[in-house]
Amino acid sequence: MTAKVHHKKENSFAPGEGGAARELLPAADLGKDNEELREQLRQERDRHLRTLADFKNYRRRVEREGSKAAESGKREIILPLLSIVDDLERSLEWAGDEGQPFSNGVRLCYQKILTLLNEQGVHPFESVGRQFTPELHDAVAVSRDAQAEPGTILQELRRGYLWNNDLLRPAQVQVAEGSI
């Protein structure tokens, strides 16, 4: 007779056998897990939106700085051109006769430079006969003039220019006594 030996399984993980599987895995709280995941998702979305806003601000700042650099570069080119315009104006005062080829050549160069400056938004402004304004004028001479009201600009020694309605170069002027 053979004896039947029953081997008892000690480490059984099958469901329904002693609840060993239940002891290894904690009870799931799906509602809490969902809420935690939603909070993490909200935080990531907020971080993403902040990063996107930071990038947009960075891009605007870079564009602004680039525009400033471009404007500064233009200013460095335009200011010396104004000295050339001044020299051409003095040359034309002495040239006199418009029939001479040399005078016509100087006039043509002068007109081309003025057209170029005009296209860039650079315009001269009139000063003679107007009141002295420290924001637009540099007084380099003062003289008495019985017919002029004190502070009136009598003569423009160097023309002033505006660039897109901002002062590019002040006019150097002679002012009637009493304004300074």
Which helices and strands appear, and what pairs or packs with what?
Blueprint: H1 20-24, H2 30-95, H3 101-119, E1 122-125, E2 137-143, E3 153-158, E4 160-163, E5 166-169, E6 171-176
Parallel strand pairs: 2-6
Antiparallel strand pairs: 1-4, 3-6, 4-5
Helix pairs in contact: 2-3
Overall description:
By secondary structure, the protein is of the alpha+beta class. The radius of gyration is 42 Å and the shape is elongated. It has a domain at 121-180: Head domain of nucleotide exchange factor GrpE (Nucleotide Exchange Factor Grpe, Chain A, domain 2). The protein contains 3 helices and 6 strands. The termini are far apart. Strand 4 (160-163) and strand 5 (166-169) form a beta hairpin.
Summarize the structure.
By secondary structure, the protein is α+β, with helices and mostly antiparallel strands. It has helices at residues 20-24, 30-95, 101-119, and strands spanning 122-125, 137-143, 153-158, 160-163, 166-169, 171-176.
